[in-house]
Amino acid sequence: MPLSCLGFAASFGLIGTVALTAHSQVAASEFLRQGVSSQDYLLQQGENLQAILAESEQLLNQSVRISLEDVIRKTIINNPQIAKALALVQAKKSRVAAEKRKWNPTLKFSRTSENPILGKQMSTYIQSDDNYKDFEYANFTNVNEAFVAARLKWNFLDPVRYSSINRSISLLQSQELLLSILCRSLVLEAQMVYAKLVENQNLINTYSSIYKKNRFELEAILGQFNGGIISLGDVAQQKTLLLNQLNELLSLVALQIELASELAVLTGMPPGSSALPSQQQIHSEEWSLSLEETIEEGLRLREEIQLALSDSKAADWQAQTMLNKYLPVLSLSVNGYGNYSDGLFGADIANSSSQDRGFVQATDLSIGLGLTWTPFDGGSYLASSNAFKDQAKADLLAANFHRDRVGRQIRGSYGEYLTAKAALAKAVQGLKIASLSVDIASERYSAGIGSVTTVVQATEMYGRAALILSKTRVSYFDSIAKLYRYSGQWPSAYKQAIIDGLSSLKVSSRDMGAVF
Prior knowledge:
Elements: H1 3-60, E1 64-66, H2 68-78, H3 80-100, E2 106-110, E3 118-128, E4 135-157, H4 159-226, H5 232-266, E5 275-277, H6 291-301, H7 303-324, E6 329-348, E7 357-372, H8 380-446, H9 452-486, H10 495-504, H11 509-512
Parallel strand pairs: 1-5
Antiparallel strand pairs: 2-4, 3-4, 4-6, 6-7
């Protein structure tokens, strides 16, 4: 090869090497510039999230602190749904009283258009002779009148009345059972919301602790980066971890605000209020009954089953009422009236005197038996009776549905209880192991024998372990609360709070349609 060609090739290779080196430096500079820009973005996002988090926590700090016992007591006392249900119970009681009072006799005072209670009668009577020239009579009457009529009646034999009273009593029992169902459901809801608030607050505390620890580690990582020990990617990884943790914290705080508002609504606080637990943990007792015993209690005590039976009984009584309308109604009645008139009677128009003044008094009294009977109405009452009988059958079928539902609810809650009970100890152990893994990863990284990636992964595992433990605790507590609810029993730990709440409303166990 000629020397000129070799020289050209050498020159071309040198130029290519210089160009490649220059391109690499430019690419590295661009990469570094983009990395710094990305770091600035992450830093800005972190500051924005911290500001939002601070505002949210300030909003939570305005909440009222309350224990679970007080939550249950105030839910019963102040919840507007319970107040409405109590008013409906009172309405049904009044309806029963109204039906019973139909046994009583009735007294009615009346008058007629011709005979007002108090009035004045004026009339004239003029008669002429046959030639229409002279007047034979020219008299007038001007008197004050008082008239009253009274009727005392007693339907002593009314076939409709007995079934009507029994129907109203059944409807009252149904309304009392609805009140009991509502109270049990609200107590369950209050327990579940409270448990979520407690465990969610524990999660917030855990994630806040993780975030603070990682913020401290970020300072050390930045020092290593400035010293050229680690790369920009390690810094970005740690900042991304912090950003993700801030997002998780924000989600938890937002959920806490929502649950706190829900708890305030349950306890009947003023609109816009917020309530937070005063407890950091909830005492959770074990369920003492077996699955079969729990189902047996539920079938015996659940108000939903009793409600369907009570509704069926009310429909049966109404069907009987419609048939009884074909039977005669016997009554005893006393009728009387009194009339008193005082004034001028038949006085001469031209020459009246005091001798024309007088009064008239009349009274009348009658006593007798009455009969009201509609033996045929075209079959309308019979058709209505059949309709209510069909309704009674439907309510009985609804009772069977509720029995099946009780068994399904109890079995599901019992399975949830056993699962959560078995998982609880493992979740606690898992959190301890995850916490130890974070400590080991951090120590190894500080000693220079670990990586940031290992620390990040260990931290994320610790967060997931804390979340699993929180969900397991909530599931365990909720399952026990549901077992009490679905078996028709009041939670033994909070029974006194429930009794106190009902006592303040002057509600007895009879009004609840259930026994404590």
